[in-house]
Specification:
Blueprint: E1 6-10, H1 11-16, H2 18-28, E2 31-36, E3 39-44, H3 47-71, H4 78-89
Parallel strand pairs: 1-2
Antiparallel strand pairs: 2-3
Length: 96
């Protein structure tokens, strides 16, 4: 399961302690929730953590589409699929 620490800090900390928050995000793999007037406003993540999260979301979207294809019978035999791929790549068909 995908999980990481979260810390809540007021918006003044972002201005007054940016380097500390940045280090906390990068080294601790933490999400820092910035509050304004006691309410959640913004979330700060390291760039690497953001890229990992974005890749996971994109993968989940592809898997959801695939699941829907299977559910509605939009599938093809694997041999046909590989033949189509080989054709697109300019390769000859071969037996699977």
């Amino acid at each position: 399961m995908y999980s990481f620490q979260e810390t809540i800090r007021p918006s003044a900390d972002l201005r007054n302690h940016y380097n500390e928050i940045s280090k906390q995000c990068r080294e601790g793999r933490e999400a820092v929730i910035i509050t304004v007037n006691g309410r959640g406003d913004t979330v700060s993540l390291s760039y690497e953590e953001y890229k990992r999260m974005k890749a996971r979301i994109e993968l989940l979207e592809v898997l959801a589409e695939s699941d829907e294809d299977v559910k509605y019978g939009r599938v093809a035999p694997i041999k046909d699929t590989f033949d189509d791929l080989r054709s697109m790549l300019g390769e000859e068909k071969c037996e699977v």
